[in-house]
Amino acid sequence: MMARLGSTLIAALLLAGTLAAAPRPALVVIVNPARSDQVTLEELSSIYLKRRKFWPDSQPVLPLNLPAGSAAREAFSRRVLGRDSEQLGSYWNQEYFHGVFPPATLSSSAAVKRYVAADRNAIGYIEAGEEDDSVRVVLRLP
């Protein structure tokens, strides 16, 4: 019985180590090709936390998220916003009482890319390698 428990514990620790070491996807931040603006990591964070609401030309900025729980969204949240899903949930619960809603969520990278290609004010992120000429990359997140 003790040997079985020990084997189970070792297997669980090995699995946990494997999951923790899983590579995070490289991401690109995309905008409509008609938009010439550059975006820093700090500005991107402000946009996605809805602290910055306008582009330099005074047009409203429209940040787009990938689905909750997706590897790309988790990686983006940690790299750009410095928060995990639970922390962001708490943040948005507080913001809701000030009338601020989280960024819109689309179903896939393809949907984000199509939306950004069609809307000059949108900004989104997708996995590196999924971008094409329909969008412009403004930031790479390794």
Summarize the structure.
42% of the residues lie in helices and 16% in strands. With 142 residues, the protein is of the alpha/beta class.
Features:
142 residues; alpha/beta; five-stranded mixed beta sheet; 42% helix; 16% strand
Topology (elements, then pairings):
Layout lengths: L1 H19 L6 E5 L9 H8 L13 E4 L5 H11 L3 H12 L7 E2 L3 H10 L3 E6 L8 E6 L1
Parallel strand pairs: 2-3, 2-4
Antiparallel strand pairs: 1-4, 1-5
Explain how this protein is built.
By secondary structure, the chain is an alpha/beta fold. The chain has one domain: 3-Layer(aba) Sandwich (D-Maltodextrin-Binding Protein, domain 2). The chain is built from five helices and five strands. The longest helix is centred in the first third of the chain and has 19 residues. The protein is globular, with a radius of gyration of 18 Å. The N and C termini lie far apart (46 Å). About 12% of the residues have low confidence.
Could you give the distance between the termini? 46 Å
Instruction: List low-pLDDT spans.
Output: 5-21
- Helix fraction, binned, reads 40-55%
Reading off the top of the CATH hierarchy, the class is best stated as Alpha Beta
